[in-house]
Structure prediction request, 418 residues.
Amino acid sequence: MTLDSIKKTSSIVLKWISVCILIGFLSGSASAFFLESLYWVSEFRDNHNWIIWLLPLGGLLIGLGYYHYGNDVVKGNNLLLEEYENPQQIIPLKMAPLVLFGTLITHLFGGSAGREGTAVQMGGAIADQFTKIFKLVNSERKTIIILGISAGFASVFGTPLAGAIFALEVVYFSKINFKSIILSFIVAFIASYTVDFWKVKHTHYNIPLVPEINLSILVWIIIISILFGFAAMLFSRSTHFWGSLFSKNIKYSPLRPFIGGIILAVIFSLFDTQKYIGLGVPIIVDAFSTPSANYDFILKILFTGFTLGAGFKGGEVTPLFYIGATLGSALSLFVPLPIALLAGMGFVAVFSGATHTPIACTIMGIELFGIQSGFYIGIACFIAYLASGSVGIYHSQIVKGTKYHLYQRFKRDSLEDF
Prediction:
């Protein structure tokens, strides 16, 4: 190797290490600020329940903000996936503050939403600014978008391995180069450790008992994993249904969250449904030790799909955790497996089915619950992924592979039989 080639290689390595450090630190810091702010607004809402009546006003503010200033970033996570697949223009940095404050407003006034979408969009928007700074070409820009997704996901959940793999798996059926794989892991750990540096804590879960596997248990795992897949399918289709319904019937977009907010405020305030507002983390934690009501997961699907479909901001992943954990917890009354194990399996399996990312979800389950439950978690994630249908929560995600071909063949055979 010549001296010139060594210098060139060293320059490239230094450039990308610098990019990872900058994206990881900035995205991690943004997530730390977001998590602390989210904790504050959730606490304030829980101590001042009357504020739920202001949800329509909050929805109108979000709608007007995106209508006047964010029409080009309103697609959110789907914009990241579209720009990865077909790079057109750098994602505007304004995506980060718009989704940040939109999500905080949603949670402050009681909308049912998550937080992953916010962190991923902030990470993606921050990361893509380095395209201009380092004068990157489109092939390198694909790597930048992966780094933004990885940093956002890893930092908001404190799961760097899952964050790195999620960023790769969610764009799996597009072209990914080896450099992106390595850098995705580097930036995920930097972003996750940045949140730790700011002393922001993540929620911890525990599965104290994992039984020995046998044929009877394996049959039960298969059955409940299919149910987790169906729940993921129902959530995805519910979110798309409400989004389509609002967009078709209310042409002026700022009115969608305003009208949706009126409906949600009335329901949340007049009926006993307040445990379905916000993230619902306390309900998720309780599901690991106390059987959930058998309708909790259905109502969370309904309220979250309606909230996001109306135009409020946030993410889908924490509600998916809620849906999976409460469904698994409710099944503990009928399935001869420990309640914490069932809740943990549902926690990641429903997420797996809705995002088509079974590998990342398996790794996430191991990071959150320990290696002892890894076999159960892995089976649940892959079966739920196969059972959840071809429609996920991201419109712009490319879904191919074994599941895609199975569903295409099923459709073709059904048409031939007809």
